[in-house]
Amino acid sequence: MKLMAGVFLTCMAVTCGQAQSWMKKDQQPEKTKGWITDFEQARKESAAHGQPIFAFFTGSDWCGWCMRLHEEVLGTKEFERFAADNLILFEADFPRGRKLDEKLVRQNEELAKKYGVRGYPTVYLLDAEGAQVGSTGYKQGGAAAYVAHLKELLGNAGIKTKESGTAGKPLSAYDKMKFKKTAGANPKP
Fold first, then answer.
1. Is the pLDDT reported for residue 54 higher than 50?
2. 8 vs 97, higher pLDDT
3. Residue 4: pLDDT over 70
4. What superfamily in CATH does domain 33-183 come from?
5. Where are the beta strands (DSSP E) in 21-81?
6. pTM confidence score
7. Which residues pair with 48 in a beta bridge?
């Protein structure tokens, strides 16, 4: 009887251990909110979530067009909402006024060489394998026009975008009021 109980407990322990290892393998990495600077992490998240990588090559502290793109589009709620539903955001920065970790510098230089970056800002839409599915840069017109442009590029590549009802749209009066209550601050639509 003791032998049977021992065999049963051993089988249960092995089965539970296997189930836990299967569960860990099947879990998707959580999507990073905001920008990623590790390209391999961006590729993993792209594969796990089925979303293309928005690879932004920038000179964040010296490139005027990069700063304009960030101010007019990338730093807006409209773009952030669209990106949250449709993109993995990756930034390869080439600053002049601040130092980056040497590993990050090497990664960014290798990526710029691989994709043939010739100027800044350069934006590539990439699949999870790193293959280019679209490219762009600075475009006039603000966030709504840029989101429409990205939807067109992704559509041309056969990638469907999600319409959450808020992606690419300014906050409604109700959303602004709700945001004030929860955050205690004025939102920037």
1. yes
2. 97
3. no
4. Glutaredoxin (3.40.30.10)
5. 53-58
6. 0.74
7. none
